[in-house]
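Progress against Task 2.4 (sequence-to-structure conversion) is shown through the following example record, which the project officer requested during the mid-term review.
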Amino acid sequence: MIRKHLIALFAATCLSLSSTVARPDEGMWLPMLLKQLNESEMQKKGMRLTADDIYSVNQSSLKDAIVSFGGFCTGEMISSEGLLLTNHHCGYGSVQEHSSVEHDYLTNGFWAMDKAQELPNPGLTATFIVRMEDVTKQLLAGTANAKTEAEREAIVQRNMAQVRKAATAGTHYEAVIKPYYYGNEYYMYITETFKDVRLVGAPPSSIGKFGGDTDNWMWPRHTGDFSLFRVYAGPDNAPAEYSPSNKPYKPRHHLPISLSGIKEGDFTLIFGFPGRTNEYLTSQAVKEIYEVSNPAKIKIRETKLNILDKDMKASDAIRIQYAAKYASIANYWKKWIGENRGIKKAKAIATKQQLEEQFARWIAADPARQQPYGSLLADFAKNYNALNGITISRDYYTEAANGIELLKFANTFIGLQELLEAKAPQQDINAMADKLEKSAPAFYKDYSAPTDQKVFAALLDLYYTGLDKQWHPAALDAAHDTYKGDFGKYAAAVYSKSLFTSEAGVKKALSAIRAGKKDVLAKDPAYQLSSNITTHYRNSVLPTYNQVNENLNLLYRTYMAGLREMQKDKTFYPDANSTLRVAYGLVEPFEPVDGVQYKYYTTLEGIIEKAETGAAEDYAIPAKLKELYLKKDYGPYGVNGQMPVAFIASNHTTGGNSGSPVINANGQLIGTNFDRNWEGTMSDIVYNPDQVRNIAVDARYMLFIVDKFAGAGHLVKEMTLITDDTSGLPQVDARREGEKKAPAKKKKQKAKKKNKAVAEVQ
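Structure tokens generated for the chain above:
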């Protein structure tokens, strides 16, 4: 069992790593391949675990503590009672769902003081990985004779269905199979998904989102970006639908938490579900992102954010309705800005061009390489040229048209209108109408028509001016001409007449449709516009986009095979695709610009300094936090009169790694990943170790907020806390779950030793 092995490791050594350890490699690595690809390198950099401690099918391992949280973030088990730690921004939607003007958990925070107070979250899941398997041979069987990419994919999908069915037969598990290296390899993940996940605790936004948009993607950072949930299971400890009788899940492993902190040069490991990277894109692709796509998306989102910000400041009700939406929109808006800055600083386009020139020389050096690779670079250029006007049209459709909530919701009714036009049986029409009506309450709960009307006017104006007219939907041009370019007047007309501006209007329309009326949707101005824009997109943009990307997928698969053949001494890692990965790096500072160097950690003192400047609303803090600071009341979590808050390391992360545990050389939790530095956001496309740092909230700050700020010490008692005694041997804290209380005298001696050891950390 991993716990026994970890205890042996803890007892073996507590020496810190030297800051002279060689730099870590980039990469997001497959856990099942660590032994053959990474174990030796990781141990050279200071790791005291084995690959089997990290990933094992036959014994408990670190992977048994890691979950895909909701399918969009990562979480980790931190107690034997199913307690789950993730980011505040990952749990933000759940906190918002439970919030109201009367119970404003977003502003004030939420803490369940016993399990009975924990709040259920319908639809929220926690998915564990049971095992991984290489299924490349099974999936590619029969594809050699495929004449087209579509035919090949059809064969792969048929094989995939058979492999999944065989792997999960007779179990409650599910199987996820995804391509790697653009379809050169395939791996299967057997998963176990728990559906009863309850909110346990979240700090107020002034802690969990401290710094807000001002500090987002930035370092130095002082954000307590964490929240706590609990996974519940049925009586057999297996997944079950929500029930008050469910019991806390007993995980195969939960992460012990280190109170020893971190030092520069320490080994770190990130375990989680990174969403999407594109490390092997060609120079043409990066140029399109840098020059075309990112600038358009940044402009559209900035326009929408300015409107939402103004209305949210004017109304608490709108603030709560749009809090999660605003955060989501702002997150990638700022990320794209930083990504472009990073691409420029890293000279990513030129670097890609140099690799392509090297590839061309390698092809030319051997006539045998002409057949598979000779036309590859020219074919890339041809296909990317075919996307001129297409990619930006797609960006305006997804960001501008679908950035208008009225149109996005009206768009979900297209299927119903198609049934009406096809004169489908009334029972089919009624079934579709019932489904749409059930979706309405969730949409209108967090919808403000007056706010959306302002967004409508602004984004349609951008849609019209941002695209060449040949890519305009007909309805957009018609509205421009009818209202003489005044999209504000057009918005007023649409929102005064459309049934989609209210839940009552939608119910009225659906009732009329059930009664046999066929033209309700066709006459609605919001539906007319939404339908026309979507039809234009499907007919004039999407076919070319899909065809070119089908071509590019084949080209990239061939390119990846060629690169791996050309660079045989290089160990390649696959792009992130929301599957379980391991990244490793070192705790270390960095220089954002010439002459400036940032430390690798921040403290509560920095929070107070920002709060006292009054420079931004994002820096307001709770009075109790300042009180604890003034008293230096940090408990066992402070170090030499300071309270650590966040730190950085050189782990390769991306979206989806939010909430991932940062684990030290001994397998202990030292922090929770929540962001990257702004200069490093280009790491989704090109990794530069001098620019890229992941940002984590220090586990000690999390414990301090839970214990000293929130008064939820009962949660800390569940956790397994590890500290060093004066001899350098690790010692389990008295609050460790399941440990008997020590006599008062011994307890005081133990606390004295523990506090001394913690004080010596930094």
